[in-house]
Amino acid sequence: EAGVTQFPSHSVIEKGQTVTLRCDPISGHDNLYWYRRVMGKEIKFLLHFVKESKQDESGMPNNRFLAERTGGTYSTLKVQPAELEDSGVYFCASSQGATPGQGRGTQYFGPGTRLTVL
Amino acid sequence: DQQVKQNSPSLSVQEGRISILNCDYTNSMFDYFLWYKKYPAEGPTFLISISSIKDKNEDGRFTVFLNKSAKHLSLHIVPSQPGDSAVYFCAARTDSWGKLQFGAGTQVVVTP
User: Fold this and answer.
1) Mind telling me how many Å the CA of B18 is from chain A's nearest CA?
2) What ranges in chain A are assigned the alpha helix state H?
3) Measured at the alpha carbon of residue A35, what is the angle toward residues A32 and A101, in degrees to the nearest 5?
4) Which of A50, B11, B97, B112 is the most buried (most CB within 10 A)?
């Protein structure tokens, strides 16, 4: 079974440019999460999809970040325009279960996308 | 407001000895705790977890202890092996399918 995959693995862009990160969850996983780790600090939650719906986007830093999950499969996270403080490693995770009581699922993480904004 | 804290950024231990990693939390609504292990250039890998209704969970060389009154959990690795050298993250969540809140991680180095 394939794990969570993320593309690209690295991205270097200039301030003001746009970048789109992609995440393909484990097949059949309804829950998809985005996290970010900045400067070796803690991994911080960004948002959570259940299928194609945003369940929790309380961690999104501002409106320069836009996440989508078309058809409840893969997800994209767009940063537009990118700022210096957006640099970090963006992780995607997925887990099974879409309803309460079904969701004690472990979150499986992808390898991350390292974003550098110059 | 960081609700999960790992106050030791690094730990060095000899091969064969016990590694003890600590984690403190402030939110009494957390009902599930997890430990993840991370190698460089890879994503976090699930290691072991514990429900808030238990005080111990064991899986092979890894044991997690939970002290709810102290809002403290620890991960014991016995015996430590060179392949255990990695960053270990403590994480917690308040509901079954919600977000994880992570500590800052502890870098473990196992020396021969």
Assistant:
1) 25
2) none
3) 40
4) B97
